[in-house]
Design brief:
This protein is of the alpha/beta class. It has helices at 2-23, 57-62, 68-80, 106-123, 133-140, 146-149, 178-198, and strands at 48-52, 88-92, 127-131, 153-158, 161-168. It binds uracil (URA). The site of uracil (URA) has 10 residues, from loops.
Length: 199
């Protein structure tokens, strides 16, 4: 028990120091336009981690991933899988908002990579949910066509950590059509069964 809480404290401390570094990061152009760095949110000992794309407007304002409408949307999807937000660690591929919510640029992803690498190698999740092609590509190191691969459960090693990787659409994709929304919901229901089989 004591050893467990000591190691939890060590994880917390590693993430705290990493977040402090991220908050003053100037490795790419996005530091000039950000309001806040959005480092990550959730229990440092989470078994399930979400990796999404980049902060949006409200996330940049608040410094927390998936707040406001995007947060409500994500929480509803998590419930389809029987998960509560409080038990999941949420991080983005980029820690700063790209202006106008444009796609992250390759040099921004590269500049930000070590933060995600250290988050994953410190938290050591059993399962990571990649939301959208940007985070899926970052974690797998290859191009992903979500229309073909959504709902897949893959073995993944990233930053020396090995975990199961579940691929699905970015929740914002649901805004573009009812069909994608249904696929996203079905993926999260499938994720619920996957999680049961992993425990
Ligand atoms: N979309 C993302 O990809 N990340 C957030 O934190 C919020 C919306």
């Amino acid at each position: 028990m004591r050893a467990t809480s000591n190691s939890h404290n060590a994880v917390r401390e590693t993430l705290r120091k990493l977040e402090a570094k991220a908050k003053v990061c100037q490795r790419c152009r996005l530091h000039k336009t950000r309001t806040n760095v959005v480092f990550g949110d959730g229990p440092p000992t989470a078994e399930v981690m979400i990796v999404s794309e980049a902060p949006g407007f409200w996330e940049d304002q608040r410094g927390v991933p998936f707040v406001g409408a995007s947060g409500k949307n994500l929480n509803a999807l998590l419930l389809e899988a029987g998960l509560r937000r409080e038990e999941v660690y949420i991080a983005n591929t980029l820690k700063c908002r790209p202006p106008g919510n444009r796609d992250p640029l390759p040099d921004e992803i590269e500049a930000c990579r070590s933060f995600l690498e250290e988050q994953i190698s410190t938290i050591k999740p059993k399962l990571v949910i990649a939301l959208g092609r940007i985070s899926a590509k970052e974690l797998l190191g290859r191009h992903v066509v979500m229309g073909r691969e959504h709902g897949a459960l893959l073995d993944c090693t990233y930053a020396g950590a090995s975990f199961k990787l579940f691929l699905t659409y970015h929740p914002a994709a649901a805004l573009y059509g009812a069909e994608t929304k249904q696929r996203l919901q079905a993926d999260f229901r499938k994720l619920g069964s996957v999680l049961k089989s992993l425990t």
